[in-house]
Design goal:
This protein is an alpha+beta fold. The chain contains six helices and twelve strands. The protein is 21% helix and 32% strand. A hairpin with a 3-residue loop joins strand 1 (6-10) and strand 2. The longest helix is centred in the first third of the chain and has 12 residues, at 70-81.
Length: 243
Amino acid sequence: MDKLFEVIHEDSDLLVVNKPADLVCHPTKGDAYSSLISRLRLYLGPGAPPHLVNRLDRETSGVTLVAKNPLAAGELGRLWETRAVEKHYRAIVHGAVREDSGMIDAALGKDVHSRVAIKDCVRPDGAPARTAYRVLQRFQRPGNPGDSSFSVLQVTPLTGRKHQIRIHLAHLGHPIVGDKLYGADEEFYLALVEGRLSAEQKQRLLLPCHALHAEQIRFRWRERDWTFAVAPDVGLTEFVAGS
């Protein structure tokens, strides 16, 4: 079971895990280890179907809640629908973010000019989206190609749009390190899905997965305050430490 995921919390109704980076939430192929859901089925065993309460992008790691029964799934799902949940992410972005903190208020919708069907963008006729951020650290990596300045941010999405944090930070002018879709060129994403990502492209990305981690979730449920948190994986901390 050690290969499946790190367990943060478990009781009779709720399982909280640290989703590894580069793992999809829902199955895309037959391998029992290829998705978080399939790994959860292995962990929980037959007769206990998992219910994902929140979902993370494939390359995003971090806190993921799993309800063990329909009642808990319904209750927690309503909390997410009413935005009664506080979520904090850790992100490493390109460039030195000037302001120590700020709010990105920019509507999001489909990117009709992109060759990537799932890609969204900032557009005035999109759905409202707001993201708060705070700079935790600014650092330099002189040996990296291109811009040698980077920032570590705590990011708090106040709405829950698809790819919201990644789009908003790119819109701010500070895309997430390693982001193949919202970074410098979406060709990196196309190369990845088509299995032709070159060694040069990997080097330019700096990290194998984008540097976004779901660090903490807080909410009130069943007359109790809950907080679940997990530190970023060693790859992200080593990237900063190597500055």
